[in-house]
């Protein structure tokens, strides 16, 4: 199998999904050639800095603006001003990515971000490529930016998305509820006691894990300050700040006066271990983080969702009793303490997480991809015979 995976480095989720997918392919077909392309960066590194930098700064400084753009473009009618501008830019960029496709000669193209989905759909519509396209939607609700009739198969995180996508014009038989690809590390088992001892924490106490994604975004310091003032001695805290060095320094300072034992961690590749030893996860509702938590059967406490995509993710989680929300994190201590002290509630939420997790997604996703390739090979053979 020659697989070209197209992603975009807007946050960590899309890239991590691409890397997990690459591992899935090699597991079931070791002789494969797989190439992951950071699409916009490949086309123009300067443009990548402008677009991705602008996107991330908008999320940090004015997230409400992103929410407005999300709602304006939520319809599948792609003729509004914002969508029209994006479409013109994408058409130009699509021709740039064509050379990479022709050079690699993939059997299949797989997209883990909506931008390259549009690029390859344009190329396929114009007849410049005739390669199966698979799209992995890395959130828990669809948006019009992902939806194109040229896509052969959609892999989605949950069954709730299917009817909405059908309403947007996608064939039911093209949609597969298989989950977002997560690293094989999250399928491994880890001894809780060993992990907590490594962190100098108490294996007999409950664990609150706090994360804000790879960028450490959100009101983590405010939430930690509230929890650190708790008189509850039966809990302890692990905070993962990602690449946010300012947040790490601030929390290290706050932890010195904390009433609760705390371990502050920066960027780590052991998120899987820390999820497995925790009782609840306080986080922003990013698509990949949700999928990882569900695999670990870890109840979620959600804060500061990005308007638009993460708000939709939050709606899904609350609807199915997989999480509670603490809004922007103000006055959240009692709500978190009440959840942590209710063994029955945690048990129900853990059961729901297990129900919506996708522990066998690796084999099933590989099968969908492989099936698309085989169908194309059969079509080519039939065409050759007719000629």
How is the secondary structure organized here?
Blueprint: E1 2-7, H1 13-28, E2 33-38, H2 39-43, H3 45-61, H4 63-72, H5 81-104, E3 108-111, H6 114-125, E4 133-136, E5 153-156, H7 160-167, E6 175-177, H8 192-198, E7 206-211, H9 220-228, E8 235-240, H10 245-255, E9 262-265, H11 271-276, E10 280-283, H12 287-295, E11 300-302, H13 309-319, E12 323-325, H14 333-341, H15 343-356, H16 361-386
Parallel strand pairs: 1-2, 1-3, 3-4, 4-5, 5-6, 7-8, 7-10, 8-9, 10-11, 11-12
CATH homologous superfamily descriptor of the largest domain: Glycogen Phosphorylase B
- Main sheet summary: 6 strands, parallel
Helix count, DSSP H or I runs of 4 or more residues: 16
**How many angstroms does the end-to-end distance come to?**
26 Å
State which percent range the strand residues make up: 5-15%
Average pLDDT confidence is 89
Helical content class: 40-55%
Q: Main sheet: which strands, in order across?
A: 2-1-3-4-5-6
SS class:
alpha/beta
The strand count comes to 12
Which CATH top level class of the largest domain fits?
Alpha Beta
What order do the SSEs take from the amino end to the carboxyl end, as H and E? EHEHHHHEHEEHEHEHEHEHEHEHEHHH
